[in-house]
């Protein structure tokens, strides 16, 4: 950006063409010429820029432009050291490399109470070994095929003979509820363990309750068995190990600050003799370093949420990743990406994409129930649920909640102060957070905290701008989120810090160069560079995806507060 451009209104002075690490400064700044000095003091018309008396009577404006206030500090406050979890792999008696992941033990939820019926068969239309895995249908009146919605291992041992099952459904014609009871005769899982076929005998003849004699869908739960002491029966039920190892891949982020001696010399001289250059020409080194540091933090936050794995980034195929070699060619490891929150949630089916449709509050509350139950089982506080979003979506959500309360009370708003604004810790307010809390009837006893932060506002604003460019309508749907995330100290989502390094050095010193290169024997001085290199090796840990949820891509309409879709 040319210096004359500094005076354009609404054009923030945030960039310059000065490289602090060599290049231009080395060739032109050791001895500045009169012509070069004039170019610093004069504009393109020959007018002198050095107008100290006028500048003293002007005022300094605040920063012009948008400062992206990342939530780096908030996320890093919950960072946990994980350096002791790295694994080394020996490849010879003297050499080894570091595996690009750490393994975390995760305890899975064992929910074998509810099974889904995907289809059903009359015994006369079921050919054993052809229609399904059952070897016989003798002694039964119906076959149902069930699957697990909760990731339970599919095995026929779950459904042992003489146990009762209860099937819940609804008559498609009358809408009447249907409650059936059956006895298990036999069961078998298919070869791929995708489903289980259960041969059932009806036990509904003595009941006055409506039931479906030919169920093809519904919820199935398991009851007790009926075995007398004089009968032979010793079927054992499965016992699952809830523990599993989950890989969290990591990578190293590097930051470099480089300043050469000629640059520092020129900068000091220019700022000393030219007050205008001090303000507009370039920034002091401390300010330059601050900007570089803040930019690195913003970039890290972006990767924390949005990082994606590389191809072959799995435990079994990671050796196909790019090799990380030391300067002398030794294999040190394999290059992987830290996988962000969104990707981990997507892999676990915890993303609800509204596909540019309206948000329905009751559907959202239904999904919050699953989050609450998962947090309860995992030992995570679950009566107060934080939901992160942008300010505009928070305002629309508030209008939807007012409609929700109005519908709940029949227009009387019987709730006693159901909405509380700003009840968030003072230190978090200083970091840009603000919250509005809502008491909801379902799940029972739960308070939703809608928390806003400029990080999410900036994302929505950028999306609205691009929507307006691409479609002419600035809805910003793709940048609209409700992040139901367990963040903060002691939470289940946090950065895992594998390690960090920092080194400061001065390179190209003439005394050292003379020792390794005879060409410098007769040289008095040489331009040096001050280098500060820092790095952080990190990963993203999502301990319990089921305890978190992301809603995305919904319209800028007030949420529907009454209906369920």
Structural class: alpha+beta
State the separation between the terminal residues, measured CA to CA: 53 Å
Report the total helices.
Answer: 13
Tell me the β content: 25-35%
How many beta-strand elements? 23
Number of domains: 3
Protein architecture, described:
The chain has 565 residues and is of the alpha+beta class. The chain has 3 domains: 20-67 and 249-337 and 494-539, no CATH class; 114-241, no CATH class; 349-492 and 543-554, no CATH class. It is built from 13 helices and 23 strands. It has helices spanning 24-28, 34-41, 52-56, 72-76, 261-273, 275-281, 285-306, 341-347, 361-378, 391-408, 426-430, 454-471, 510-516; strands at residues 80-81, 88-90, 96-98, 101-107, 114-121, 142-147, 163-170, 177-189, 196-202, 218-225, 243-249, 251-260, 323-325, 331-334, 351-357, 384-389, 419-421, 434-440, 446-452, 481-484, 493-507, 529-542, 549-554. A 6-stranded antiparallel β-barrel has the order 5-6-9-8-7-10. A 4-stranded mixed sheet has the order 1-21-22-12. A 4-stranded mixed sheet has the order 16-19-18-17. A hairpin with a 6-residue loop joins β7 (163-170) and β8.
Quickly list its features.
565 residues, alpha+beta, six-stranded antiparallel barrel, four-stranded mixed beta sheet, 23 strands, globular
């Amino acid at each position: 950006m040319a210096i004359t451009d500094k005076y354009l209104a609404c054009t923030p002075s945030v960039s310059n063409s000065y490289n602090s690490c060599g290049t231009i400064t080395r060739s032109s700044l050791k001895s500045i010429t009169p012509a070069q000095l004039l170019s610093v003091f004069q504009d393109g018309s020959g007018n002198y820029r050095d107008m100290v008396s006028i500048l003293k009577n002007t005022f300094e404006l605040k920063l012009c432009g948008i400062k992206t206030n990342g939530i780096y500090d908030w996320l890093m406050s919950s960072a946990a050291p994980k350096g002791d979890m790295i694994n080394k792999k020996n490849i010879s008696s003297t050499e080894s490399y570091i595996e690009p992941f750490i393994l975390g033990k995760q305890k899975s939820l064992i929910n074998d109470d509810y099974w889904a019926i995907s289809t059903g068969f009359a015994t006369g239309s079921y050919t054993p070994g052809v229609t399904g895995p059952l070897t016989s249908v003798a002694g039964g009146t119906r076959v149902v095929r069930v699957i697990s919605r909760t990731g339970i291992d599919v095995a026929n041992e779950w459904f042992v003979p003489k146990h009762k099952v209860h099937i819940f459904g609804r008559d498609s014609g009358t809408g009447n509820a249907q409650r059936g009871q059956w006895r298990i005769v036999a069961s078998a899982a298919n070869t791929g363990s995708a489903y289980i076929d259960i041969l059932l005998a009806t036990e509904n003849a003595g009941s006055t309750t409506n039931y479906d004699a030919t169920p093809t869908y519904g919820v199935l739960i398991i009851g007790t068995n009926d075995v007398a002491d004089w009968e032979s029966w010793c079927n054992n039920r499965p016992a699952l190990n809830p523990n599993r190892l989950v890989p969290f891949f990591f990578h190293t982020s590097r930051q470099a600050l480089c300043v050469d001696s000629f640059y520092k010399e020129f900068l000091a001289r220019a700022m000393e003799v030219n007050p205008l250059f001090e303000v507009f020409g370039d920034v002091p080194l401390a300010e330059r370093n601050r900007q570089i540091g803040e930019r690195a933090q913003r970039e890290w936050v972006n990767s924390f949420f949005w990082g994606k794995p590389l191809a072959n980034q799995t435990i079994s195929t990671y050796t196909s990743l790019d090799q990380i070699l030391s300067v002398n060619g030794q294999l040190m490891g394999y290059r992987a990406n830290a996988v962000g929150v969104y990707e981990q949630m997507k892999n676990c089916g915890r993303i609800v994409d509204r596909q540019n449709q309206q948000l329905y509050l009751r559907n959202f509350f239904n999904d919050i129930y699953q989050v609450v139950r998962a947090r309860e089982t995992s030992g995570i506080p679950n009566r107060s649920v934080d939901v992160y979003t942008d300010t505009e979506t928070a305002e629309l959500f508030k209008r939807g909640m007012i409609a929700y309360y109005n519908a709940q009370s029949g227009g009387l708003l019987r709730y006693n102060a159901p909405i509380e604004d700003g009840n968030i810790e003072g230190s978090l307010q200083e970091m840009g957070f603000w919250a509005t809390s809502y008491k909801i009837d379902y799940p029972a006893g739960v308070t939703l905290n809608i928390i806003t932060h400029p990080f999410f506002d900036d994302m929505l604003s950028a999306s609205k701008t691009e929507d307006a460019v691409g479609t002419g309508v600035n809805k910003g749907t793709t940048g609209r989120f409700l992040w139901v995330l367990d963040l903060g100290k002691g939470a289940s989502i946090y950065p895992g810090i594998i390690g960090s390094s920092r080194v400061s050095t001065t390179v190209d010193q003439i005394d050292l160069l003379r020792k390794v290169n005879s060409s410098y024997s007769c040289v008095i001085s040489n331009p040096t560079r001050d280098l500060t290199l820092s790095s952080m090796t990190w990963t993203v840990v999502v301990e319990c995806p089921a305890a978190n949820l992301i809603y995305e891509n919904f319209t800028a309409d007030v949420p529907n507060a009454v209906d369920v879709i």
